[in-house]
Task: structure prediction
Amino acid sequence: MDHVPGETSPEPATPGALPDVAPQLRGLRRRRGLTLEAAAQRAGLSPAHLSRLETGNRQPSLPMLLALARIYGTTVSELLGEAPPERDPVVRADRSEPVEADGWVYRQAGGAGRALQCLRVHVPYATRADIVRVHPGEEWIHVLEGRVRLALGDAVHVLDPGDSAHFDSLTPHRIGAAGPAGAELLFVHTLMQSPVAELCLGDETLHRR
Result:
């Protein structure tokens, strides 16, 4: 077997070791519509090295599996062919511990680890210092109590209880309560990289109340 400069050569795969990894790697890459070259570049590997992983001629290290899982939007467990644990479809109110960050209070309203993240949110009074967010995905909000000021691109909308908004989150947007008492809303968004996503994942820098 040839050695690619700059890479550590793992030992050849032992027969029977991690039998599901090679077909899983190949299948997930193809389902994501990635070429071998594109996936290898994102993972910091050479195409030849990734090809050997996909054919079972090399056994991936844990760092490689972690990198590939992030690229393919999955978990190491799925790469290893393990069945995902059964998820409880019910989220009980008394088990939803609030998380606070910069005056915003979040409670989980949906299951963890899904493509849609559902939260119940207390929104503080809007100020000019509020963060304008831009990120991939979609967002949906529904006002439960109070009034919400939604700045969406160049437009500003005031939402009353019962009103909803659904928008592409690549549009610059800012959300805040229209009154000093704050507002309560339901918030649904696609999984993404943003401060809200960090809250959903339990960022250690947040304060639990």
The beta strands are 99-101, 104-108, 116-123, 138-145, 148-152, 155-159, 164-168, 173-177, 183-190, 207-208.
